[in-house]
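Retro notes - structure team

What went well: the batch runner handled both jobs without manual restarts.
What didn't: labels got mixed up in the shared folder, which is why I'm recording both outputs here explicitly, each with its sequence directly above its tokens.

Job 1
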Amino acid sequence: IYEIDGKMPKESTIRQTIDIVSKLNIEALISTLKIVDEKCVERAVNAINEAKHVAIYALSGSLIAAQDIVFKFDRLGINCRLYDTPHSQILSAAGLNSDEVAIFLSYSGETKDIIAAAELAANRRVKCISITKYGENSLTKTCNINIQHSSLGRGFRSFSTRSRVVQENIIDIIFVALAQRRGDQLKKYYQLFDYTAPNGTKK
């Protein structure tokens, strides 16, 4: 975390820290709202919904968001798996088929191991979806569906926290759109765990 207005975090009060972090996260979400491409989101949702299998690739700070994808997709009955080591990513990408979808998460879009896996998948004519920061980078050049979020400006922030906020926002958008198409699967999930479904149905 870096300084803002000449102050280091240790010099800020708890109230100032609450205000600063919340404000920057809100700004990141508002910026993402302005740049996210509706057509790319729709293409991604349709591809995932129709895929035989969804492979998810992430490393480091993007892993928490990737794990949330698995959690949400499982609730919708989507066959998916997270590959979270360079070795497993290369092996997985090399065996993908055109009826599968690959999702790649990288804030910078320049993570070497993620790019290597994406290139393998793209060469196998797999539908490749990137979730990365706004602007052209190696990942967006490789993938054919790119969902981009705001990049992080200078000042008081942490890449691992603010990047996760905007990544999770994209994931929630995809999840809700998929849930509208897979309502029966979501209902089964609620019934399985004896939760009250959105329509009031219980097991």
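Job 2
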Amino acid sequence: IYINHSSINIVNCIIDNNYCAYVNSGGAIFIDTSNLKTVNIINCNITNNRAAGYGGAISARGASSNTPYVSIYNSILSGNTINNSKEQLHGQLINAYNSFIEDAVTGDFNAQENLIIQGVVFSNPGGTDFQLAANSVAINAGNLEYVADLLPKTDILGNPRINQNRIDIGAIEYQTDIISKITGKVVDEHGEAVTNFELYPGI
């Protein structure tokens, strides 16, 4: 993905197994813009991408004032490399919040809040389903403070975005078994029966 002088929100996405040969590139996302724009990456998985230049996952450049304009929230970056060496991010113009960034070197970007760099994440490491393991460090490790207005109610698979009262890191929310039984009748404030409604556990 090449972002050139644009503001954009990338939400609930999986970007996996890409290669960019451009010298100043990021393997998944290359951002070249000004400090008048903002790029938000929210609850995404950016995995197993490769770059010939900088930032196996993301490289950002171009803000003349050196003020960070790229923000990563509640996202998983793992398995991304440059020239067979691990490097997830490149650019002091990038802030990361409440994210898993594998073996991160914080000098390559700005770690803001609750950065996780090691631990179990996926139930099938190396696979392509990206389900979180039951003991994943990503479960309940996210934060809605900055992104509540930008997130849909469901994850990338259409499951409830929040399952255990706190958002997970990544594009796929861990789903525990939910057994519910609703009896009786749902009515509105006028006593009229409600026949069309949605129930989102944990929200």
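One thing worth noting from job 2: The mean pLDDT is 85.
We'll revisit the folder naming next retro.
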